Hints:
Layout: E1 11-17, E2 22-28, H1 30-40, H2 44-62, E3 69-76, E4 82-87, E5 92-97, H3 114-118, E6 121-128, E7 140-145, H4 152-162, E8 167-177, E9 183-195, H5 201-213, H6 217-222, H7 227-235, E10 240-247, E11 249-250, H8 256-264, H9 268-278, E12 281-284, E13 291-294, H10 296-307
Parallel strand pairs: 5-11
Antiparallel strand pairs: 1-2, 1-10, 2-9, 3-4, 3-6, 4-5, 6-7, 8-9, 12-13
Helix pairs in contact: 1-2, 9-10
Bound molecules: zinc ion.
Amino acid sequence: MTGTNHGAGDRLVRATADEGQIRCMAAVTTETAAEAARRHKTSETVAAALGRTLTGALLLGAGQKEFDRLTVQIECSGPLGGITAETNARGQVRGYARNPEAHAPLNPDGKFDVSAVVGGGMFYVTYESGYEVGLYREPYRGSVPIVSGEIGEDFAYYLAKSEQIPSAVLLGVLLRARESGETFIEAAGGVMIQVMPGADPRVVAAIESSVSATPHTTALIRGGARPADLLRAALGDVPFEVLEERPVAFACTCSYERAVSLISSIETSELESMLREDKGAALTCHFCNETYRVDEPGLAGIVERSRNGA
Ligand code: ZN
């Protein structure tokens, strides 16, 4: 079995405004967020937190020219424990929450209280490049304390403090209840606007006021908005030029072959005891929660090769 790939309807646009001094990204990630929630069997609040983080990672990656892998890591003291999201330059993203079932009461506005499950802690971003072509470079790693726990503001704080890029980041996941009482993700997406040092202050002021007046991203997506429509809403009268539009999706790089190769790297004596006691082996991918099972004859073959030093 090969890696999974879902979310064919999700898309991201990259655009510029003010002659390149404003970088803008927007994405609709409804299927990506829903796939993550389904795979990890998350609570509703964690579905929102994870969906926002995956969307933020995709948007952050779209604003970068050179990287193979971008990892956003939230290490937090709230019941959620932590979130890891990893994306590549091809718009694929995968991720997980440490405690997917974490829960918090609704906030006073009747919304899922993401900041309550996140709590305090640290927000890390790591860019890696070159490893796919054997020219691995020293990764770039930045970190900031968690300032809000609502995730969007934490991305903005990270960009401002660690990359010195003043930014507006809007991330949303809208959950709705079916008549059966079961909830589902009806809309997810986000907008990221980055201000370069040469930006016209009047344009920046215009964007600040339009961003603060823009309707909720998820309300727009629910109404059928595409990524460029989200940018139009966020930028108001400021003209922008779309440079690229591409699909994005929840996708994992794990596979049965990789699971077998990982199991094969275990010490022979341990493999022998697994064969004796468990009559097989199972490995679950953290990122996508897929479980790969090696049956008894399969494990016996691995043990045999391990004894022969293969
Ligand atoms: Zn996986």
